[in-house]
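Entry:
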Amino acid sequence: KTSQFILITHNRATMHAADALYGVTMGRDGISQLLSVNLDMAQKADG
């Protein structure tokens, strides 16, 4: 079986073990923006 779960962390070791990272940022205008990084694809693109 496979599992998926959401974990909130700033721990680099935990983020390093993840397949993907998702984040929310808020600009000066107060509007939130969502971002995501697929770490497997990012590593392949990096070389």
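The chain has one domain: 1-40.
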